[in-house]
Amino acid sequence: MKISELFSVAGYGVIVTGGASGLGLGYAEALAENGARVTILDVDGARVDAETKRLQAQGLALRGEVVDVRDHAAIERAFDAAVAAHGRLDVVFANAGIDSGPGFVGSWAGAQRPRNPEGALERYTDERWNRVIDINLNGIFATLRAGARLMRPQRSGRMIVTTSVAAYQCEPAIGAAYMSAKAGAAHLMRQVAHELAAYQITVNAIAPGFFATNIGGGHAKQPAVQEAMSKAIPMHRVGFADDIKGLALFLASPASAYVTGQQISIDGGWTLGVAD
Ligand code: NAD
Question: Considering only the top CATH level, what class is 7-264?
Fold first, then answer.
């Protein structure tokens, strides 16, 4: 293969869960702008509508469908519809996720990080725990399963899970369910990668650090939060959806054909240690 073709995804059929906002929208744009046909699946109908129209108006081959990843039968139907529309399935981004509410210390917005009683383990309700696990872990399982059903017979494909640096590093401002779901999703990714390797299907994870998206009500978009985080991150800035596009294209394209079962962090150096 010529070097110029290594990153070509032209004509690919792509599905992105949680694709109407933030990082998922970044994945969708990166692939569609490089000639792929992309389906975004998202629970937020208004955003699906708005982003689909916006990107179609730019001439991109993009379609959207309202799907809640907690509805596993709906995921299967949406995958079949995407294959019917695009004629093929090459890449799946298992990305949809939510925050888990407060952790046991306060947010990064403050100079001090006092204990937060609201986030204490004893106050953690079953409802809150189950909701996060249902979307951030069970939803990934159901998405990977739907991808495997279609990719295994064709003996090709790429699946990319959005985990988090929270998969391997504790963050006290974020609730325990989020840590657990992301660590579970990372190891699920490895197990599925192992199972599907013989079929030339690669399964990898992108582990973002701190990105300004709409998660948690857009907390990370607040200037005070970004200022505080920029002091803590060695590159002295937060991440934006555009920062994720190159890695997404690499993991979706022929360039990463021999990479599988890997979790790649993209965090401006946040997990390296204390910023200077
Ligand atoms: P976002 O809120 O901007 O986008 C998430 C999208 O997922 C939204 O469009 C939302 O409607 C959708 N979604 C939520 N629940 C869903 C459900 N049940 N079914 C279908 N769609 C659903 O947030 P984001 O930051 O882009 O998050 C994307 C992924 O990145 C998540 O898995 C998140 O945990 C992960 N992540 C984000 C950061 C960060 O700093 N922003 C860091 C690490 C990991």
Answer: alpha beta
